[in-house]
Design goal:
It is a single chain. The protein is mostly beta strands. The chain has a domain of 141 residues: SH3 type barrels (Roll), CATH 2.30.30.30. Helices cover 7% and strands 22% of the residues. It has two helices and ten strands, in the order H-E-E-E-E-E-E-E-E-E-E-H. The chain has a six-stranded antiparallel beta sheet, with no helix packed on it. A hairpin with a 6-residue loop joins strand 2 and strand 3. The longest helix has 10 residues. The two termini are 44 Å apart.
């Protein structure tokens, strides 16, 4: 009797293939009120994020705190500006107020969504050009993306660079890292499985030809080339 292959098992949604919810105990987003100054109360090491987080207290009439990815060089007790025009590391400013060539991170894709892009450790984007109400930003992937000028971003480079340069050394270290993020590791190659466990399995034909899965194939059969842009040999 066969068993469910990995694609089917993941689709069921058990805790084995889920991220631990308790790891995401900090809500990282910009505050809705966007005027005044804030002070960094504490720098936090979050297990669910690749960059350290900063707990910032707003210094206006209604005191409240929010969490944001820390920038490179941030220290506790440092003041940052919310919604101003001063170009200083850590300040949260609208894209239309940031000069060309400035490095930013934690960008909003829509005005008021709290920050969705460029939040990984050591990452940053560059303001490339401003056309009317649109701001064009060069992302870490070297691609240019258009944003509305009302979207907010943080000046500087996200802290935590060099994270991937440190070797794991032990397999157990990588196992626990993957487990904390809900990733399956170690991963077994499909051609090393039995024929009943995977479409690429069995000892016959160890060099499988690329297979193109149908668009409406179920998770158990959707393996190989998924929605390829082109097929055939390149000339």
């Amino acid at each position: 009797m066969g068993k469910r292959i990995i694609q089917q098992r993941r689709g069921r949604g058990s805790n084995t293939y889920k991220v631990r919810r308790r790891g995401y105990k900090y809500l990282v987003q910009y505050p809705q009120s966007f005027d005044g100054k804030g002070i960094v109360i504490k720098l936090i090491n979050s297990t669910a994020h690749t960059a350290p987080l900063a707990k910032v207290e707003c210094l206006d009439k209604k005191k409240f705190c929010f969490f944001m990815p820390a920038f490179k060089g941030m220290v506790e007790g440092q003041e940052i500006e919310l919604g101003g025009k001063e170009i200083k590391e850590g300040n949260i400013i609208k894209l239309k107020e940031i000069p060309i060539g400035t490095r930013v991170y934690n960008l909003e894709t829509r005005n008021g969504d709290g920050g969705k892009l460029i939040k990984a450790g050591g990452s940053s984007a560059i303001i490339n050009r401003i056309v009317n109400d649109d701001v064009f930003v060069i992302l870490p992937s070297k691609k240019e993306k258009k944003f509305r000028g009302e979207c907010r971003a943080t000046i500087g480079v996200c802290a935590g660079a060099g994270r991937l340069e440190k070797p794991f050394v032990k397999a157990g270290t990588k196992y626990h890292l993957k487990k904390s993020k809900g990733k399956l590791w170690p991963r077994t190659s499909a051609v090393k499985m039995n024929a009943i466990d995977h479409p690429f399995g069995s000892g016959r034909g160890k060099v499988p030809k690329p297979r193109i899965a149908k668009r409406n194939a179920p998770p158990g059969a959707k393996v190989g080339l998924i929605r390829p842009k082109r097929t055939g040999k390149k000339k």
